[in-house]
Amino acid sequence: MTSIGILGANGRMGQAIAVAAADAGVPVAGGVDRGGDARALAQACDVLVDFSSPDALVVHLEAAEAAGRAILVGTTGLSAGHHAAIERAAGRIAVLQAANTALGVNLLAALVEQAAARLGPDWDVEVLEMHHRHKRDAPSGTALLLGEAAARGQALGPVSADRSGARAAGTIGFASLRGGSVAGDHLVVLAGEGERIELGHRAESRAIFARGAVRAALWLAGRPAGRYAMADVLGL
């Protein structure tokens, strides 16, 4: 049976993934945190799941490459350099990078992409997200995922949680709210003349992200080298 190794094992998501794996009967080969031996963990498992921190990503990718193991990267707040490192690793191993592993969120992204494409550029797009008070990155990785889905093939460009003046045509706006213990709320508003469509998702607990991560890790194990996404897991 496929076993997983958890990078960032003592974090909120790491602990939730351990519970989700146990519930699904998936063996956990072990887990490490900052300063732990990621290479030894990679050797001991079939697939790595990384929900640690951006500054640990390169080391974790190198550990996965050295062991020839697939790795799911769920860490958010990644820079262009991190994505370049993922691309390099994907030339040698299977890498699935996901801003959000909840199955519902990834289906939402597909719906947003379809809606934006069919409605066309005359419809304005705004993305609103809210998370718990401890979340550091803003807009959230999921908000950016949804923005990219709505961008109709165009680059997002600079994003901002603040705005002044009239809305610039063709832009995608982002608003980030922080407070309490909110696991993650996301709303995409497509606004036309005289009508509005709202597509959203609310996460009621981290368990949904953990269950999606375990499912994705099992799907990823044994795949050929390449860069994958949650859409691949769902067959979208």
Describe the structure concisely.
The chain is an alpha/beta fold and 236 residues long.
Beginning-to-end CA distance, first to last residue: 26 Å
* Chain-averaged pLDDT: 93
Percentage of β-strand residues? 15-25%
Individual helix count = 8
CATH class annotation of the largest domain: Alpha Beta
Report the C-alpha radius of gyration, rounded.
18 Å
Strand order across the largest sheet: 2-1-3-4-5-10
| Domains (count) | 2
Low-confidence stretches: none
Give a count of the beta strands, DSSP E runs of length 2 or more. Answer: 10
Largest sheet, if any? 6 strands, parallel
Q: What is the approximate shape? A: elongated
Order of helices and strands: EHEHEHEHEHEHEEEHEH
Q: Share of helix among residues?
A: 25-40%
- Find the CATH topology of the largest domain: Rossmann fold
What is the CATH H-level superfamily of the largest domain? NAD(P)-binding Rossmann-like Domain
Annotated CATH architecture of the largest domain:
3-Layer(aba) Sandwich
Structural class category: alpha/beta
Model description:
By secondary structure, the protein is α/β, with parallel strands linked by helices. The chain has helices at 12-24, 38-44, 57-67, 80-90, 103-119, 141-150, 207-220, 230-234; strands at residues 4-7, 28-32, 47-50, 70-73, 94-97, 124-131, 172-178, 184-192, 195-203, 226-228. The protein has two domains: 4-101 and 207-234, NAD(P)-binding Rossmann-like Domain (Rossmann fold), CATH 3.40.50; 103-203, Dihydrodipicolinate Reductase, domain 2. The two termini are 26 Å apart. The model has no long low-confidence stretch (mean pLDDT 93).
